[in-house]
Write a structure and sequence with these properties.
Blueprint (H helix, E strand, L loop, with lengths): L2 E5 L10 E6 L6 E2 L4 E6 L4 E5 L4 E5 L6 E2 L4 E6 L2 H20 L7 E2 L1 H9 L4 H5 L5 E2 L1 H9 L14 H16 L2 E9 L1 H14 L5 H10 L11 E4 L2 E3 L6 E3 L1 E2 L4 E2 L2 E2 L7 H17 L12 E5 L18 E5 L3 E6 L5 E14 L5 H16 L2 H5 L4
Parallel strand pairs: 9-10, 14-18, 18-19
Antiparallel strand pairs: 1-8, 2-4, 2-7, 3-6, 4-5, 6-8, 11-21, 12-13, 14-17, 15-16, 19-21, 20-21
Helix pairs in contact: 2-4, 7-8
Pfam families: 2-oxoacid_dh (PF00198), Biotin_lipoyl (PF00364)
Enzyme class: transferase
EC number: 2.3.1.-
Amino acid sequence: MRVTDLVVPKFNNNDESYILVEWLFDDGEQVGSGDAVAVIETSKATQDLIVEGEGVLHRLKPEKAECGPGDVIGRLFASEPDRQSYLAGEEQAGKQEAASNTAAEPTMTESARAFAAEHGISADRLRALGKSLIRRSDVERLIEGELPANKSRLLPISRRQQAIGAVVSESHRTIPAAFTLMRVDVGRALSTAATLAERVGAPVGLPELLIKAVAGLHEEFPLFFARAVDQAHVEPAAAAHVGVTVDVGTGLFIPVVRDAGQRSIPEIVDILMDFRIKGLRNTLTEQDFADAVIVVSLNNDDAVVFARPIVFPGHTCMVSLGGVLTEPTLDGAGNLVARQVVHMGLAYDHRIVNGRDAVTFLQRLRARLEAPEHLERGDAG
């Protein structure tokens, strides 16, 4: 009997679990090679599960169920009689399991094991569930049953926020991050952005200039774009793929400007506009989030002077950009004038980057933003 497992792929490096949002075929329906058979939701986007074979579908997980990379959520059979034969065998196996009385240790999914450890659930309490296979949802129900009697007053945390929380917790647990902040005079950068906006007929601001500036430091500061392999080695990035935070009111996303060092500023403007439109329409795909080697964190409110970002697992640095402030200063003749400044920060993995190099990196960025003509021409600066 020919059977093809439908296995959930690893869509990204941040999530340990996903949600099976929707099946696109019913049990017993014929599925063709290349068909999208289900919709999977990660913390970032929804993704179609494409089948490589063909056959009659049998679904193993219901819609809205949790699933993880490597999980088998369904099977494809060569024919409907083969599917029925499989179901008959499963029914018999279920009866035998129910009749058996074994003290064997239950099998746990990796997601369930990690979740139980995180919440201090003992092995005895897990065995008491009486299940041969324990999934994360079983552990969640166990914990829910121990909530206070007034649990109706508790507020739920969305799955998306739980996924974000897991990434933040992993960052704090595994990365000894440091943070350095620097003030930058952005008067000339804002003037350059306004000139470019008139030329390209689209809004241009500091984010586009900063992305270009960051990417231009890839060759000079390879450690800042590297990925830690172990305590003694890092893997350098082949290109400056710069992730950038995008928040259009539907959630915070970090799509990637690929090969940002080879892009002109008008090209970066178009890419960011496309990301914002996709964010509004909820059409960002996993490919939009792939391969970031450094991230630029933006703030949409000028009242936010600065924010200290995290360093994502698998990255070494994140650059942050605060709101524009107007402050008094003295010009060369001693006259009181106004200038526009921002606070630009760098969070970095202190195992890989030392403080002196972090300051030098920020100084290079500041020089590029304070002499933005180099960025506009694509010079090294």
